[in-house]
Every structure is written in C-alpha cells, then in structure tokens.
Amino acid sequence: MGEGIRRALLLAVAGFALSACGIVSAPFGGNQPLTPHPAYKIGAPYTVRGTTYYPHVDYAYDQTGLASWYGAGFQGQYTANGEIFDVNELTAAHTTLPLPSIVEVINLQNNRALRIRVNDRGPFARGRIIDLTRRAAQLLGFAQTGTALVRVRVLREPSLIAAAAAERGIVDNGEDAGTAVAAYQPPAPRHFFVSSPRYHVQAGPVATEEDAARLRDQMIGSGYRDAQVVID
Length: 232
Hints:
Elements: H1 3-14, E1 46-48, E2 51-53, E3 62-70, E4 91-93, E5 101-107, E6 112-120, E7 128-133, H2 134-140, E8 148-154, H3 156-167, E9 181-183, E10 192-196, E11 201-206, H4 209-221, E12 228-231
Parallel strand pairs: 3-7, 4-6
Antiparallel strand pairs: 1-2, 3-8, 4-7, 5-6, 5-8, 6-9, 10-11, 10-12
C-alpha cells in the first residue's frame, strides 16, 4: 500500500480533524531523513473513507473541479511513488492518475496556469480533484483561500517522459514541468453573421451557430435564397 494511502487510512482511524487538503499529517520516520526511491506506479484499486478509487492510465484526462493544497505537515515524507514531499516543489496528489504524471492546472478564477508533477495520492475530501503543494497554490493564487476552481488536464508527452524516467528510478519532469506560470488565454469568441452574396446583405451578429441557422432560414424564406452562415 502506498504511503499516501496509508497516511489517509491511519488518519481516518485516528479521527483527526481535516486540514485544508482533506488530510492531516501524522509523524512518520521521526527526524531521520528519508532516501527517495522514485518509481512509476499505477496501483490496485483502494478504498478510503468508504470510496473506492481505481487508478488507471488516462492521457485524455481533462476535468474541472476544486483544488486544495497540503503543506508542512507532510514535509520530508514519502509520496505514494517513493519521492520525497517538499512544500516548495511544484507537485500534486491525485486519486487515480499514474504516478508520475504531468498535468496543467488552470485556476479558473484568475486564469493562472502551471505545469505540475503528480507524485502522490489524494485528495480524499469530497468534491476535490487535486491536492497541490503550498508553493503551487501560492503561484496559482489560492494559498490564502485554501481552495480554487481549476481545470486539470494531463499532458501526454511530458507524462510519458516522466513515466519512462521513473521506471529507471529517475525524477524527470518532462519538458520542464513546474517551471512556467502564465496567464491562460481562453479562446476568442466567434461571431456569426448571415450574408447573401447576390444582394450583399448581412445580418447579425448573433451569439450561437443555432441562432445563425434560424436567421439564415428566415432570410431564405424572405427571398434571399443564397443566404449562408459566415463566421468571423
């Protein structure tokens, strides 16, 4: 059983209160520094707090939900795939993605985006899809609030690079995961018009393609038989 899962199970039994990330730290290993042994891991299904999780490869993963963060209580402890947790690194925990995976996390409340290495299991609080380190939460702008609405998507090629390195016991983020923070630019809105090349009449804009289709049909019914939808 991975260290991340073992921590969550022990804490559930102990009845500790929840922290911002849904798990509370417990002492492991005393003051002795641990030796990292990074590995590639998917893992068998496991159950935490009555919910069963099914780890699997999913390079098409693209989800929106709440992000939280976990911090100093786990500093220096093993992650679920044998790396060492550091609050100042840009890493994350996820319940089912392969370890490691490289994901892009976009804070939908301020459009900040960050590439992050997933190397641990969690969060186990209902409604949350990813747990980040304190540093990642700071860079994404929600360390003070504790949670944020985010979009998380797997980056296939960097994840393959990171997985291949982990199988050799090496930490490789794959194309500099965690080094760049940028403003996410949502797609520019498209405007729909209906025009007739014979009479050079243009109507619009309207908000959706469906509205444009209805307007085109109206123009055709009015005698503009060459009317067609034009996207600008």
